[in-house]
Amino acid sequence: MRAISQGRYGLGETLELVDIPQPVPGSKGVLVKVSAASVDAGVLHLMSGDIPMVRLFFGIRAPRSRPGLSFAGTVAEVGSKVTAFQIGQAVFGTGSGTFAEFALAKQDKLAVLPEGSDLTIASTLPISASTALQAVRDAGKIKAGQRVLVTGASGGVGSFAVQFAAQQGAIVTGVCHSDKQEFVSRLGASKTIDYKLEKITGVYDVVIDIASPLSLKETRKLLAPRGTLVVVGVASKHGSSGMGRNFCASFISGFVKESLVWLMQSENKTTSGNFLLFWRKGKYSLWLTRYSRWSRPTKQSNSLALGKQRARL
């Protein structure tokens, strides 16, 4: 089968199209014929090795596994102990090395898609949309009428967070670049702030902190008394090389009146199923830039890394 391989840390320039043997699922595994796989911030961290902890667990000098996490496709083969899936079913979820014609996944990392689902759109949902839902509903506990600030509002997680919060009845302010303000407004934001031209001000009941241009101290000043800060990912522009912001927020949370939450996002059948139920309640927008599945991996990953991409690839 054809697959994207990576022999050293880096972005698109390190990717190579290769022919490798088709994987065989174990007794509890599922082999999926990949219809689409998406690039997200988590994949970029694994590809670039820019976070020291990534290299500790995934390879010091080079990544141990092929790139790709979030995907959608059809079940091609199941292990002897798999009972939840049948050959031919459309599924989405997370797996290993999903930038390939076939990918392996654990059965608890997949969920069956409703009939007629767009598999390209579905491939963007397991990580970005699921993370946003967990940030809004579980960590932020956002309710109608609350004032919510979403930084990184035009990105993969941020664009979903804006929509989910707005659907809950929150008054949403989205932080993004000027050329994406109209897009974020269409997602449901009552107000947008261009972080390069304007100072981020206001008082908010909940801040969904994604790729924030502010320090943790500056962000806390935006919170209402007893407000909640949800730190998502490790892509803050204030110290993006590690998890210092996340650890710091968790540590000081016990000593301050605000609630500072490091979102420990998870992807499994339960979170995917919960997301599908939430998804069916409303209409959501998704910005997709479509590329040939094999010929443009460099352009896709570099575009997202440079912050030039709206929503999902």
Explain what this protein looks like in three dimensions.
The protein has 313 residues and is an alpha/beta fold. The chain is built from ten helices and 13 strands. The protein has a six-stranded parallel β-sheet, with helices on both faces. Strands 6-3-4-5-7 form a five-stranded antiparallel β-sheet. It has a two-stranded antiparallel sheet with strand order 1-2. Strand 11, helix 7 and strand 12 form a beta-alpha-beta unit. Helix 4 crosses helix 5 and helix 4 packs across helix 9. The longest helix is centred in the middle third of the chain and has 15 residues. The two termini are 23 Å apart.
What's the layout of helices and strands?
Layout: E1 2-6, E2 15-19, E3 29-37, H1 41-48, H2 52-58, E4 70-78, E5 90-94, E6 102-106, E7 110-112, H3 119-122, H4 125-139, E8 147-150, H5 156-167, E9 171-176, H6 181-187, E10 191-194, E11 204-209, H7 216-220, E12 223-231, H8 244-252, E13 259-262, H9 269-279, H10 297-305
Parallel strand pairs: 8-9, 8-11, 9-10, 11-12, 12-13
Antiparallel strand pairs: 1-2, 3-4, 3-6, 4-5, 5-7
Helix pairs in contact: 4-5, 4-9
Question: Could you give a quick summary of the protein structure above?
Answer:
The chain is α/β, with parallel strands linked by helices and 313 residues long.
Question: Keywords, please?
Answer:
313 residues, 6-stranded parallel sheet, alpha/beta, 5-stranded antiparallel sheet
Described by its quaternary structure, the protein is single chain
Which strand order does the major sheet show?
10-9-8-11-12-13
- Number of strand elements: 13
What string gives the helices and strands in order?
Answer: EEEHHEEEEHHEHEHEEHEHEHH
Rg for CA atoms: 19 Å
Can you give the helix content as a percent range?
25-40%
What is the count of helical runs? Answer: 10
